[in-house]
Amino acid sequence: MLLYSAPFAPNPRRVRIFLAEKALNVPMRDLDLAALGQKSEAFTKLNPLQRVPALVLDDGAVLTESVAICRFFERLHAEPPLFGSGAREEAFVEMWQRRVEFGLFGPVALAFRHSHPAMAKLERPQLPELAVLQRERAADFMRFIDAELAERPFLAGDAYTIADITAIVAMDMTKYGRVDIPSGLLNLENWRTRVSSRPSAKA
Amino acid sequence: MLLYSAPFAPNPRRVRIFLAEKALNVPMRDLDLAALGQKSEAFTKLNPLQRVPALVLDDGAVLTESVAICRFFERLHAEPPLFGSGAREEAFVEMWQRRVEFGLFGPVALAFRHSHPAMAKLERPQLPELAVLQRERAADFMRFIDAELAERPFLAGDAYTIADITAIVAMDMTKYGRVDIPSGLLNLENWRTRVSSRPSAKA
What is the ipTM of this complex? Predict the structure, then answer.
């Protein structure tokens, strides 16, 4: 098994945090995204969509998409459960994971891709107006989850889950997308401190 | 249990097709999206994000996000499996489901939202340039899956899965987003005919 990753990129970081929470060691190889390593001929053979992360299995099959890779490890190593346990809990964890993706992770990533000079090569054309809209959308979502986090320690309930992973990676990406975090969101701030203090956050 | 749905809207249709494939009957209530029923006070209490579908459980909890709702029913009613069976198959089904979401469903939906006059009230401001970019992205992805479908009957393998549901709903939405389907994609065309002929496609 070999996991293709990249420093700084948000999606591989989701998988690395997930593996750290599971205490799993998976061999990794970093691509240099600044040098467009994800577009090399060799990597394009592995993932024609030219994105990391990508997990090469022992028989050569290549699994892509961060959440699919995480769920694969969850099914192989159930503890600690990061997708919930039982039909109902799993459904609500997935609901939160997807809400965070659409409301926060996606908007912050789009703000970054459509405004940062480093992305001008990849996102052609950049639409600055789209970045502005996505920043507003992300801020609205932060207000929404701030209210939710008044009632529980983690996004999907009492336990840390993949929804928190997606959210912390998004929050840490805000500075690169120049997404302002609305002031006074104390529940969100406390959640962020709590999640960032876990050893996995360094992954 | 009560499922809030809406005619014509793509996300509720994903859930309805899923339920039809499982031969499950779930009580449904339609919202009138043209009258902004999803923004009513009563519905906002159920889903503060003001979107359908939403599944109200018997204890009053509200599950949202199409794929989370589908996975909930999958866990309650395993047959036929629409998310795959076993760690590996489930991972690859999720990979395809997500690839289709990011490469096709999302782009077609954005092209629709940012170009169709009926969406001017909801998507403010509409960015016509974004619609143009998303149409290109969707067409690229159609070329990609056309090549993949040369090797197997359904997107994730030999069996029909949720990835096919997301894709057929996206393909049927192309006309509203004015997304041109590149000519000569015979595998995609045959797949579409095959999937559209299933009784569930009428859901």
Answer: 0.96
